[in-house]
Amino acid sequence: MSARILINGQTPLDEARALHAGERGFHYGDGVFETALVRDARVRFLDDHLSRLTRGCERLGIQAPRRAALQADIERLSASCAAGVLKIIVSRGTGTRGYRPDTHAHEPTRFVAMYPAPPSMPWRPIRLRWCETRLGRNARLAGIKHLNRLEQVLAQSEWRDERIGEGLMLDTEGELVGGTASNVFLLRDGVLATPDLRFCGVQGVLRAQVIRAAAGLGITVVEEPLWPHDLERASEVFVTNAVRGIRAACELESLRWSETTVARRLGEALEC
Amino acid sequence: MSARILINGQTPLDEARALHAGERGFHYGDGVFETALVRDARVRFLDDHLSRLTRGCERLGIQAPRRAALQADIERLSASCAAGVLKIIVSRGTGTRGYRPDTHAHEPTRFVAMYPAPPSMPWRPIRLRWCETRLGRNARLAGIKHLNRLEQVLAQSEWRDERIGEGLMLDTEGELVGGTASNVFLLRDGVLATPDLRFCGVQGVLRAQVIRAAAGLGITVVEEPLWPHDLERASEVFVTNAVRGIRAACELESLRWSETTVARRLGEALEC
Question: Least packed by Cβ within 10 Å: which of A65, A74, A229, A234?
Fold first, then answer.
C-alpha cells in the first residue's frame, strides 16, 4: 500500500507500525469512514463527505473530530495532489477490552490517507452481476458509512472477472439495495428511482448530488423500496460512487440496456 | 490498556504503534476473534476456541494461521499467567484500498494479547435488561465471532447502571438472540432451551459446553427459535460467556426468577 498517512495529525514513522493495539476500529469496527476523489489538489464534494462523517459519528455516539483539525490534515495531503483518493477514518479511539465504550474517555482516532487515483477508464457502460451475499437489515446502522463492512468484502470476493464493473446486492428480504461500493439508479417511464435505504446501504455522497442535479435538469427522482423486477422495467440503469463517478450499465445477466442519456447528462452536470 | 501483546509472533516496541495502517481488520472489520479465560497458565476450552476461530476464517475465506504458530504465541503469553483473559484476533491481513481481498496475497494478521482477569465476583444471580439495539439478520455471518461488532457496542452503550449484569438482544424481527456478550438459556418444564442462532448471534464456546454438560446430567436441551414471551414461561434463566462463566438471572424488568439449580449444577460440572 503506497499511501501518505496522517494519524491524529502525525505521520507514522513506519506504516507497518501505525495504529494502537487497543484501537476500537480494529477490535470492533467501531467507527466510520469516507473515500473521496481528489483532482488538482481539490477534494470533490468535501463538505458532503465531512457532513456524512459527522452524521455517522453522531449516530454511533462517537465524538467527531474538530473540523479544523480534519481539514488541516486533508489540506496537507491534498495540497500537492494532482489526482488521488482521500480516505478518512474516524474511530471511537483506543480503549480497554470490552464492547462498552468508556464515557467521555475516548479520544477519537483521526486517520487520513491519500492513495493513488484509480486508473482512468474510458467512459463506457459497465456490466453488472448479482451478488449472492445479502445485506442484513438494521435501521440503526442504515445509511451511514461505518466500518462493519464484511458483507461488502464477501460480496466483492464473489467474482474476479474484470469485465464485470460492479455487483448488485439485495438485502436478506430480497429488496434491491445497491452495488457493493455504489448506489444504483434506474429510469422507469422517465422517472429516476433509487432505493430508499431505510434498512441498509450507504447514503452515497454522489447519490445525493445526483438527486439534486436531476431535479435541476427537470427529472423527477423517487427514493423508494425497489426489487429486482424493477430492473426489468428500467430503460436505463447506472451506479454512482464518489471516486468512480457515474457509470451507466449495459448488462445484468439476461438484461440489456442501451440507453445512457440520463447518466451522461448527470455526469456532465456534475463533471464526473 | 495494560496487555501483553504479540503481533505475528512479535512484541511491538510500543503498543501505540502496533498495527499496520493497511490492516483490513481496521478498515473493514475483516476478521474474527476469540476471548478465553486463563487460570493457572491454562486456557480454558482452548481447543473449542481455536476450532471456532478456524471455522470463522473458513466462512470468511481467510487463510487461518498455522495452529502451531498460534499455540506458540498463546503459550508464551499464558505460561506465567495465574489469571487473565486471552484475546486472539485473526484478520485477513493488510492490503491495498478496496473491499475486494487480493487472492492468495494476504498474510493473515495474528494478534494475541493477554489482559488482566476481570475482578472476581461473588456467585450471585444478575439482573438483565432489554436492549433497544437490534441485531440484523444475515445467515452468512451468523454463529461466527467476526469483527463487525457495532451492534454489540451500541447495545452496551445503552446502560451504565452497574447493577445490571447483562442486556438481552432481539433480532430485527423480534426473535430472542442472547446477551450483548453471552448466550442465553431458559428452563421450561424441565427442558433447557437456547436460541438456535440461525440468523445472527455467536455460537458461544461455553454455550456448546453447557449443551454437552446438560446432556451428561440427563437434562434435555433444545436449540430453537425463541421469543421474549418464552422468558415469561421460564422457571430459570441464565447466560453464558467463556470469560464470565455461567450467570443465573434473577430479574428482567417485571420478570423474576428465584430458581438457580440448573445453572449451579452446570457450573459445578464445568467448573465455571
Answer: A229
In terms of DSSP bridges, do strands A245-252 and A236-241 run parallel, antiparallel, or are they unpaired?
antiparallel
Give B157's contacts in chain A (Cβ within 8 Å): 61, 100-101
Q: Alpha-carbon distance A63 to B218, whole Å?
A: 52
* Residue A159 to residue A156: CA distance in whole angstroms: 6
Choose the mutation target among B17, B57, B158 for the interface with A, i.e. most A CBs under 10 Å.
B17
Using an 8 Å CB-CB cutoff, list chain B residues near A151.
138, 140-141
Residue of B10, B27, B89, B241 to mutate for A, most A C-beta atoms under 10 A: B27
Nearest to A172 among B19, B85, B138 (CB): B138
For the entire predicted model, the pTM comes to 0.97
Nearest-CA residue of chain A relative to B155? A100
Phi and psi angles of residue B60, each rounded to the nearest 5 degrees, phi first:
-90, 0
**Distance between CA atoms of residues A210 and B94, nearest Å:** 34
User: Does B19 sit within 8 Å of A23, measured CB to CB?
Assistant: yes
Please answer whether residues A64 and A57 qualify as being in contact, where contact means their C-beta atoms are separated by less than 8 angstroms: yes
Which of B96, B99, B154 is opposite residue A149, by nearest beta carbon? B99
CB count within 10 Å of CB B72 equals 13
Question: Considering CB atoms only, which of B85, B115, B137 is closest to A172?
Answer: B137
Burial class (CB in 10 A: 0-12, 13-18, 19+), B41: middle
HEC assignment per residue over B13-46: CCCCCCECCCEHHHHHCCEEEEEEEEECCEECCH
Quote the DSSP letter at residue A97: S
Interchain CB contact of B89 with A (< 8 Å):
yes
Q: DSSP secondary structure string, B246-259? A: EEEEEEETTEE---
Give the position of cell 495504529. A19
Q: Are A177 and A134 in contact (CB under 8 A)?
A: no
If you measure CA to CA, which chain A residue comes closest to B114? Answer: A97
Pairwise CA distance, residues B217 & B269, whole Å: 9
pLDDT band of B1, cuts 50, 70, 90: very low
Tell me the per-residue pLDDT of A29-56, one tens digit each, with 9 for 90 and over: 999 999 999 999 999 999 999 999 999 9
Average pLDDT score over residue span B185-212? 98
Q: How far is CA A207 from the centre of its chain?
A: 9
Phi/psi of residue A144, nearest 5 degrees: -85, 160
Contacts of A135 in chain B (CB under 8 A): 138
Bridge partners of A194, per DSSP, are: A223
